[in-house]
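Hi team,

Filling in the usual template for the complex we talked about on Friday. All components are listed, including any nucleic acid strands or ligand strings, so the model treats them as one assembly.

SUBMITTER: L.P.
PURPOSE: interface mapping
COMPONENTS: four
RESIDUES: 390
SEQUENCES:
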Amino acid sequence: MPLREDILEVSRTILVKDGFGKMSMRKIAKHAGVSATSIYLHFQNKDELLLALIESSIAKLALALEKNLSDSDDSITKLEKIAQAFVEFALNNPQEYEIIYMVRPEEMPKFPKEKFQQVRKIYELLADIIREGSSKGPLSVDKPLMSAYTLWAQLHGVASVIISKRLDTRIPTGEFVSQAVEHIIQGFISQKTPA
Amino acid sequence: MPLREDILEVSRTILVKDGFGKMSMRKIAKHAGVSATSIYLHFQNKDELLLALIESSIAKLALALEKNLSDSDDSITKLEKIAQAFVEFALNNPQEYEIIYMVRPEEMPKFPKEKFQQVRKIYELLADIIREGSSKGPLSVDKPLMSAYTLWAQLHGVASVIISKRLDTRIPTGEFVSQAVEHIIQGFISQKTPA
DNA sequence: GTATTAACTTAACACCGTTAACCTTCTTTT
DNA sequence: AAAAGAAGGTTAACGGTGTTAAGTTAATAC
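RESULT (copied from the run log):
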C-alpha cells in the first residue's frame, strides 16, 4: 500500500544516497514496489515531489538550527552557533542541502513562491537574533532583515563552495569553514569606519 | 564545416539563451547543422563540452574582474570594485555563471581537477590584493589565500542567492547587492576584537 | 595507388518524465 | 442489494535524453 508518504520516504532515501541527478521517477517506483505512473496519482509531477522533499529538508534544517539556540547565550554566541550549525548541516547533508538551495530555477519553472515561505522562518530567526543584538548588544546593524539575508547568503556561499567541490585542494576544509564563519560573524560585530 | 570551435560557439549561444538544462547534444547538433553523434568526434562527452564552456566562461569572468582593476586605486577600492564586478558579472551572465560555479558535482563525476586551475588565477588575483592591503594597508588578514577564498565564497553566496531566486521578494535586489558587498568588504577592513 | 585519417552518417540502446486508457477493489449512496 | 464513485494500481506509448557501434565519404600522405 505505497501511498504518498511511502513514496516520499523512498525518494528521500534515494536522494540522500544517490543525489538529485540519479533520483528518477522510475527508480523511485521500483524501490517502492510500484509502477512509475503510480507516483503521478500522488504527485502532480516530479517538481511537486521535489518540492515536498525540499519542504521536509527545510524543516530538518530549521530544526538543526533551533537545536543550537540557547536563551542563555548572548547574541554573538547565538550567531556563531547558528552559523556553525548551518554550515555543518550543509556538509553533513549535502544532497538535502543541495535541493534546498541549489536546484536551478529553469529546472523547476513553475516553482510556487509561497512554498518558500518556510525558508523565511529561518531568515526571521536570524533577523530576530540580529535585532536583539542590535538593540541590547554589540551588533551594529540598521536593517535586520536585510542583514539576515546577507548573513545567510554568506554562509550559503561557504557551504556551496565546498559542496560543489570548488574549494582549492590546498585549503583544508575544516580550517576554511571555521575561519570563514569566524570572519563572517566578525563582520557583524565590527564598527563601521566612517566613509 | 562545423568543427570544435563551431560546436562550442553554438553551445555557448544555446547555453546563454536557454540555460544549461535545455542544452542538449541533439539541439546543439541541429543548430550546428550536423548529426548529434558528430559532436562526439570533437568532445569525449557532454561533460567535456561543458568543461570547455566553463573554461571560456571563466576567462570571460577573469577579464571582467581585471578590467575593473586600476593601479592607482588603494587596496580597499580595488576589493570593492572587484567585488562589485564579480556580482555584476554573475547577474548579467547568469547562465554562464551557473555553469562556472553551480553545476552539481554528481552530474559531472569525472570532472578533472586540474582543469579548475584557471579559476585559481582569480583567487590569486584576490589574494594579491589582500596581501598588498595587508602589508601596506588597513587590511587585517593573516592568511591571504584563505581570505581570498572566504571573500570569494561570500560573493558567490550573494550572487547565487539571487540567481537561484532564493531572495525574499520583499528585498530589492540592487539594494541587497550593494549592502551585502559593502558589508563583506567591511569585514575585511575591521579590526579584530581580541577573543 | 594504396593507406590513413578526419569528418560525418544512420540505427540503436537504455534511460528519462509524462499521458492515456484501462483495470481492480473497496466504500458510499440510493 | 445494486449502483456509483473514489482510490490505487496497471501497461503501452510519446517524445525526449546521452551515448555507442558500425558504416560512409573525402581529402591527404607515402
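MY TAKE: The longest helix of chain B spans residues 46-67. Chain B is about 70% helix and 0% strand.

Thanks, L.
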